[in-house]
Specification:
Length: 494
């Protein structure tokens, strides 16, 4: 944390900024001379990354692309192998020491320390129109709140209102932080209160654009969407509904995936239909986005089972199977598939498919309009409005499922249990291959009607992760804890 706190005192300029000589000037104290609002705005032109692979291993979706019989039997497992085995003992005894650093943590606090807080620290003194200053303030407050929220989802327990005032969470990095003083680890209640305060300040400034300069900048929908996620994490259903509806008021478009299907020929010479998400930064359903390739992870049977039949992200996303289709027995699809599976067993020890999508632009750490419909569905289910809930789901499903297979849920689903089942499937369709499946399933571990024990059958052994498991909480990176003695892990370690 100490390193992250001082990051805004030594901002490294990107290629975009390298030609701005005045921006790179520093005074005798080492402070960048961000003297104009136009200089500060350049900081907001950041590129964001969303590491999700370790989260996907814990929540059951994906496995590392390696020879699993060796990995699972390794006596001195590495970080990824401990997650793979859902090993609570090693999670308590060995994982903290193996967590030398963590890109997710580094990214979250880097965006706060080198993007959001420098803007907030310098904007009052900068020269420029007041309306421009207010827009920069609102963007920076939203960015800070968002990445504080993401960090809390990975490194702290799911928010429980009954323990929030005493449960440890993460530090909150304000622009006023004294860099000589290590930050304090706050409680869940304190962190979430600060997040909401930042978001409300951004909203009250009332100066964010309906359409952002680009989809890596902040728009009106995004600030309300972040607030909706935060509030539903806190169990504040009614307020989460209000925020989600407000986000949709400014942007409700759902991209129809059938329009993103591309016909091509795979490496085996077989014609295939592939879902290509994109074009880059131009998906209208994205309120805020990063662009990441999804490649090099095995897809678990559980992952496949959670998609509804005909879902484009299951049937048409670029995978190893789809790329190899027709390569072995082109005249017999079943024998061809068995030959592909045999190759995977040879390479990885299991016949699981693999992600191999180098063409799409996946939004792994952003928020989409579809998220808001998932939140509205959950809120409607929890207040007993099943038909209304299914109407929300159908708005998304009709744009995700092949029309030859699609059937509306509204009018057919009438019970809460069945509604929750379809909500989980629809959430999976939206959140797979992003960080959001982990965050959502973790949040559900404290909801009586939603929580479940996940089971992994692997190489003749059965592994489980319960809703109460400490595996849902990741250790802080060791390099952070060595620099800040105030931080303690948020689960019991040995």
């Amino acid at each position: 944390m100490k390193l992250k706190n001082i990051a805004f005192l030594a901002i490294t300029c990107s290629a975009t900024l390298s030609s701005c000589e005045s921006f790179t000037d520093v005074d005798q104290k080492g402070m960048n001379l961000l003297s104009k609002t136009s200089d500060l705005e350049l900081l907001l032109n950041a590129h964001y990354y969303g590491e999700w692979e370790d989260l996907a291993i814990i929540c059951g979706d994906n496995l590392p692309l390696e020879y699993l019989p060796q990995s699972i039997e390794e006596p001195n497992k590495n970080f990824t192998q401990i997650l793979l085995a859902w090993d609570e003992n090693d999670h308590a005894t060995r994982l903290p020491a193996l967590s030398t650093n963590d890109d997710f943590y580094a990214d979250c606090f880097s965006y706060i320390g080198t993007v959001a807080n420098p803007v907030l620290m310098r904007v009052d003194e900068a020269t420029g129109p007041e309306d421009h200053k207010n827009r920069l303030r609102a963007e920076a407050l939203t960015i800070r709140a968002y990445f504080q929220y993401l960090a809390a989802q990975k490194y702290a327990a799911a928010y429980d209102p009954t323990t929030a005032e005493t449960e440890r969470c993460i530090p909150y990095l304000f622009e006023t932080q004294d860099i000589q003083v290590p930050t304090e680890q706050l409680t869940q209640k304190q962190v979430y209160t600060n997040i909401l305060a930042d978001l409300d300040r951004a909203i009250d400034l009332d100066c964010l654009p309906v359409v952002a300069l680009n989809r890596e900048r902040v728009c009106k929908s995004f600030v309300y969407a972040v607030k909706a996620h935060v509030l539903i994490s806190m169990g504040e259903q009614a307020e989460a509904e209000k925020a989600a509806n407000k986000a949709l008021e400014f942007g409700s478009t759902i991209t129809d995936y059938k329009n993103l299907i591309v016909s091509k020929v795979n490496r085996g010479g077989t014609p295939i239909e592939v879902l290509v998400l994109g074009p880059k930064l131009q998906m209208e359903e994205d309120y805020f986005t990063n662009n990441t390739q999804c490649n090099g992870m095995l897809i678990t049977p559980y992952n496949d089972s959670m998609f509804e039949p005909g879902h484009y992200r299951k049937d048409n996303i670029s995978t190893g199977y789809l790329s190899s289709k027709g390569s072995y027995v082109p005249d017999d699809p079943q024998k061809d598939l068995e030959a592909i599976k045999d190759k995977y067993v040879q390479y990885y020890g299991v016949p699981y498919n693999s992600l191999s999508d180098l063409d799409s632009q996946h939004n792994t750490c952003g928020i989409k309009s579809s998220h808001m419909y998932m939140i509205l569905t959950e809120c409607a289910i929890d207040r007993g409005a099943i038909n209304e809930a299914m109407e929300y789901l159908d708005k998304v499903r009709v744009c995700r499922i092949n029309p030859d297979v699609y059937q509306p849920l509204q009018g057919r689903v009438t019970t809460k249990d069945e509604a929750i089942k379809y909500l989980k499937k629809s959430c999976h369709g939206e959140y797979a291959y992003t960080m959001w499946n982990f965050f959502t399933r973790k949040r559900w571990t404290i909801k009586a009607d939603y929580k479940e024990t996940l089971t992994r059958e692997l190489l003749g052994k059965t592994y489980t992760i319960t809703p109460e498991s400490p595996l849902w909480i990741f250790p802080f990176p060791r390099n952070v804890m060595e620099m800040n003695p105030n931080i303690q892990h948020n689960y019991p370690t040995k």
